[in-house]
Amino acid sequence: MSSGIKEILESFSVNQLRDLAFAMGAHGVDIPKRSLGRNELLRSLENKKADVTLALFAHRIEAITPYKHLFVYSLDAGQLTFLKAKTRIEKVFPEFVGSYRDVNPQVGDMEAQVCLPDEQHDRIYLKLVHQVEMSGWVTVSRTRKELKEFRRRHPVVVTLRPKDGIVTIGFPGFTYVQGVQHEDRMAYSGIATQGTEFLKNSLNINCKPFNAKPAIDALLEEEPNEVTDVKRNVRPKKGGRFGFDAGEEGELTTSLTDFLSSEGDIPVSEAQIRDLLRRSGASDIVLVWKRLQILTRVALLQDGPEFLFIWRDSGPSSTVVDSVLQKLISYEKLVAKPGANAMRKEILASPLDQIARPALLAQRYGVSRGEVVEILNLAVSRGDFEPRFRVNTEHYWLISPIHGEAVLRNFLVQSRTITEMLLIPRFLLTSKSHSNELNRCRLLITLQAHPTI
Length: 453
Description:
The protein starts with a helix and ends in a 6-residue tail after the last strand. It has 14 helices and 14 strands. The protein is α+β, with helices and mostly antiparallel strands. The protein has 5 domains: 5-64; 69-209; 212-303, no CATH class; 338-381; 398-447, no CATH class. Mean pLDDT is 79; it is low at 393-400 and 416-453. Strands 1, 2, 3, 4, 5, 6, 7, 8, 9, 10 and 11 form an 11-stranded antiparallel sheet that branches. It has helices spanning 5-11, 14-23, 38-45, 52-64, 82-92, 188-203, 212-222, 252-263, 270-279, 318-335, 338-348, 358-365, 369-381, 404-413; strands at 69-74, 111-118, 123-141, 144-161, 166-171, 208-209, 227-235, 242-245, 281-289, 294-299, 306-310, 398-399, 418-428, 438-447.
């Protein structure tokens, strides 16, 4: 299989061709109009096929394009950094870091073709290519069929994200033409497995399963206004499978609660249904991301989950993919730590008048203050908590119960950084020869701008 530019361009979508034309604007290609279709875009690039720059840009666009099939794996904690990964790749493939190389893989093999380090976002794109071999009966006329074989170039992009502790393997997938013998179809999970084997054998990078289901359940529990599950295939402990589908506009827990209560006369709450789904196994879950306006089907496979991105009007977007992954990564890390997960549940059940103090929560559950703040930030973003910040001082504030609050309030408001102050009095007797009871206040302050302390 030739890695020639013609084959790559013929596989590109309209969006990829438009991006390529924009990139070639400084090399004699007219900036494309929005109305240009696929054939017009291909003709605008026709005279540049011998240009090395066109080939380089095309390979780069193919490497960073967000594909609808995405497998997610975990890296061992501390196993890999951006610099270590880049150094390993440069040692094994010194000629194509930041560039590309011509490859001609045989059927069943994967060859590395492009490596794009992105230090700003702490990730490395490694594009592999392989051939997909298909065969079947194809209708060539009204009365005639022929058995033909097809070999098609198929890119597979491995993205190393050391800071996030994950590896993703994405690809566009392929559609079998009418008449193809589907028993010969290559499984997408097999392609992802080839990618992990390539990392292990060539770069000594081991991939571990990403624990997606607990992360999804925690996300659904904490952010129901952001994400809902609309379809789920449940795997009971005694075998079998149950499928529940609430439709894109529905919500699974609400639909199941209504069905059992109204049609089955079985009183049950949504909280009970959510707890049941959390404790039950599942083979796949369909999520609606309301703000992002996309659907994702998550197939919970043995070696790692497969995310199928179902794009809507906006089309494929790297920003959307990153948003989905960041949500799941944060919850996957959270539920993996028993102390942090128990603390998360306590925060969810907190009464309205409770004050959450990061230092005390960290002590109680044996986690770091950074982990506590991360969980509280999620609660604040949902509007469950309102942040307050105390005066950063090592000294005690000794304030008269009669005059102290007014004096202190005037002093602090004059600093022009404070818009509100909440005083929580704590009474104590001093060891000095004062007969009056003094009031030591912990100052909780809302800053006017984003806090820096």
